[in-house]
Amino acid sequence: MKTRFSLSLFDVMYSASQLNQLSFPYELMLPSAADLKKPDNRFSLFVEWLRTCTDFGSCPLPKRSQLQNLIAMLLGHIETQCENPRAEERFVRFKAPLFLLYVALFYNQHVVRCYGYDGKFDQHKPNPLHIKPGARPFTDLYIAQASLSTLPDDLQKLFPTPDLIKDKLLGKGAVYGSSLWLGVEPTYTPWHRDPNHNILTQLHSKKKVRLMPPKRGQAIFERVQAELGSMGHTVGDPKIRGAEMMQGLQKRLLHDAIWGDNHPLGIGEGILSPSDSLFIPMGWWHSIKSAEDDDNSRLMDL
Questions:
Q1: Can you give the pTM of this predicted structure?
Q2: What is the CATH number of domain 185-298?
Q3: Which residues form the JmjC domain (predicted)?
Q4: Each residue of 31-69: pLDDT tens digit?
């Protein structure tokens, strides 16, 4: 069995300098090449601010070499994406310190304070970080499936296996892995199934979940699979959070099939609030996304 937790960043600030020595697995959705060339695109504005900023507030700074390497990596993604003028949005994975997520949240809070969510400039609002007009919150950044076993021992102790699971529900030794998911909203996981039982626990903000039993969920995936195949597209493995389902046509079709106006009848839905947990049986299909019901929930999903 696998347990999945969402950890509030602010619960671990005391040990952030230690965490910055670790590499966390990030996922990022790069804008299309056409969007990256626009002067007001949110990704380039964030990277430019990160490159020139000298005041990161209370964010725990990594070593100077780490910061330089991080900026160089993000600039490299922009350069690579723009080499093909027709490049569509692209899903990428990389390793980086926790600082990147901290500073993205720090930046977003100041962007919203200065310009709101739509980037409209207000000359009467203070702008101490010199964020450029037109900036909008930096989104589509996710620490995904960071194994608890890679954390220092004192932090692993923050996530003991619940007695109900360990002793009564499944027995000792039944948990094969536990992981952290920390993201800048909106976060999204497409329609898929897991090869083991799964418990999702929400600790900050809210998530919306839709799910179906194995046969009915499989039928939906196969319908999308057939549509993609008829157009000559490669179909990803539904048991793996692969790039195919996170970008392009497959992402759009899976999203529309589950979250669109014509979603299947009888699909189960629930809202996870902080401290809520959901048991997802092995093989059950599910999709998870941020539940954006207020302005604060648009900053972080942890």
A1: 0.82
A2: 2.60.120.650
A3: 148-302
A4: 999 999 888 888 999 998 998 888 777 776 777 788 888
